[in-house]
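To fix ideas, we quote verbatim a fold written out as tokens:
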Amino acid sequence: MIRQGIVILIGLSVICMNSVAQITPVITSAKEKVLIGEPLKLKLELKAIDRNATVQWKIPDSIPHFEFVSYDTSDLFKREITVTSFDSGLWVIENIAVIVPSNVNDKPQLLRFPPKEILVEYDTTGNQLLNDVKPIIEVNAAEQWIGYAIAALALLSLIVLVILFRRWKKKQQKLITEEDSKYTALEEFQLVIEKLKQQSWSTQLEQKQHFSELSHAVKRYFERRLREPLTRLTTDETMLQLKPYLVNDRLIAITQVFRLGDAVKFAKFTADQQDCINAVQDMEVIVKKSETELQAND
């Protein structure tokens, strides 16, 4: 009987202890001191908790002075967090909490893990010395001439490039100026216009060929008169070059003709024959008016 009483007493004691045991959050780490950039594994564990309890972890998105490397959530009552740090000093890992039911009344309660101090240090031994930690080295004044020589060479190269560019620009203008034929710019343009007036504009292929000749003739005329390389430019580039020399009405008219020509040449558009003839006549009128104004400014 005495033995049975002892066993019963021990059992009741164990039951009472389990019923009043408090859930305890515990944080542990493999090390208390790490080097900069070294991973550190933290283990968060709940002690004395019912296996069927509902747990809500409250881990902050970031920890001051530390960066998350990995996060293990395979166990509901444990968390393994691997962090690292690139700031030297003694830092505290805190503000980690968990919501669990109370062992007394099953009401949710917030438990905070105790703060954990971690010392982060530089590795200053042997070959492990970090590359970004170097002693201050004084500059040898005798070697400053190397920097001056490089700067002078760069400046000289820039001057040479500017000179070469100016010579190339003058050469381009000279080529345009000296490409004089036995006809003036207006006469050369007029020959093309008279030829186009006699051509047939009925098929798309004919229009494509004639609009190419027309746009080239207009560009060629202004190229010779303004001494600007225009024959190799696109429609938009040509209009930008002509804008300072032409009034808006004429610039718009030339643009419309060039756009129509581009549609015929590149989009296989077939224009009305009368529109094609009108385009030739409009270009003839514009060029003649421009010639009169340019002669007055010569």
